[in-house]
Amino acid sequence: MFGRSSKINEFRLWGLLFTLFGMGLMILGTAGIVFWGGSASRVFAAIFMVLGMIGMLVSVGIYFWAGMLSTSAVILNCPECGRHTKILGKTDRCMYCKTKLTLDPKQATDLDEDELEAIKPIKS
Hints:
It contains 3 helices and 4 strands, in the order ααββββα. By secondary structure, it is mainly α. The longest helix is centred in the middle third of the chain and has 34 residues, at 38-71.
């Protein structure tokens, strides 16, 4: 699962996982009130609500970071599927077909001159 998609999609995946983890902790805290009742369950619920809120805030930070990275990413045409995709760093994968892409011709393998022209960044 990890390492098989573009870097921006990986960041978004981690944001989603932290969102689900935070929500799960909050639901677990609420379940303590339902099953146990009493004052001890309120403390249990409060602790898990705070931990869940921290997980949710971490996910917001990750989504914000992925959004900021996405605005500065280089846009290019994927030579495999022909769609516009964003690339972070020198090497990344296509967001759609998962083809390995690079901006460094020294790292490219099995490419003709026509394919090298196809991976040049799009000027916007």
